[in-house]
Amino acid sequence: MASEQTARRVFTGLILLSIVLLALVIQPFAKGFFLAAVLAGVLHGLHERLTRKLRGRKNVSAGLICAAVILALLVPVGGLTAFVVAEVSAGAQFVTKTVQQEGVEGLVQKLPGPVRDGAERLMARLPVEEVHLDETLQQQVSSQGGTAARAVTGAVAATGSIAFQTVMMLIALFFFLTDGRELVHWLESVSPLRPGETLEIMREFRGVSGAVLASSLATAGVQALAALIGFLIVQVPAPLFFAGVAFFMALIPAVGAAIVVLVAAALMFFSGHPWAALFLAVWGTVVVGLVDNIVKPLLAKRGMHQHGAIVFFALLGGLAAFGTVGLLLGPLIVAFFLALVRIYERDYGRDHPPPESPATPGPETAPDGPGASLAREGPPSRLSGPDERH
Known about the structure:
Elements: H1 4-26, H2 30-42, H3 44-53, H4 58-109, H5 113-125, H6 133-143, H7 145-190, H8 197-234, H9 239-250, H10 258-270, H11 274-304, H12 308-322, H13 326-347, H14 372-377
């Protein structure tokens, strides 16, 4: 028969193996599950209030919240996509009509000044006659068909991956909202930590997640407003559209809202407004670009109750280590570490007596004496003990 120590080792190995296998199973949905857990923690209070109003129908409440999340994702994206498709379609029709009626030379003459000059110089250097220019351009486009097809295939694959993760996130969000309380109680019951410590860590996670999400949305709104002000000053066409794009790009750390302002500045330059383009470039770099590094840490600091420098480096470090999702993971990792340090200092510090240590015999700890209630409550705290009075 195996000894107790051998059995413990085998059991520990089985637990580690099960953790590795579980990680492999969850890995395809990891980002979706993580975002669902974050949203469930943030929307937990709303779900509870909505469930009470619906007389305990928590499934209906969770379904309504998931539907609201879908609308929040699809309506703005769908509106921007429809606008882009309409503008691209109108532009393609204009180019086709102009080339058919006036040829490539007529199209070049309709371009803005700086672009027209460059296009005319390019056409002068082309080693082909004007009558064969359209055929040459068509051959060049056809020769790049394979590259374009691969680019389109990659874009479709990326879009499919995002859609898949979004669907998995919504499904997980529904179950986290409906069964989240039972899951939390189960984690508390199986956790090897002391009672209440697991819940304290999870409450810390929920607070940090809410603070980061709220600060990200608020910062994106501030950046979009700043970009809109710049667009209105220089009279960029369709300023609301560019401001909406800036809002969504601000939620993507690798891109940012400043890139939208720089693109608008390039459009203004090529349309013959160099001073407006220069103003937009400076505005996008100095004002819009720096808002993210200033406003987001300040807003996140209020909800995380941490020093602003810690929040700033947690955001940047998480972004560098884990990509876009690191904006949440970085602060959560820092909050997890600080929560463990706080719990250790409070419950396991050097001045904190172990819970299983026997009480010192004496009148204060006698079962039936005047110190019986004190003995049942445990040893005196370090701040109010008799040693502090000497």
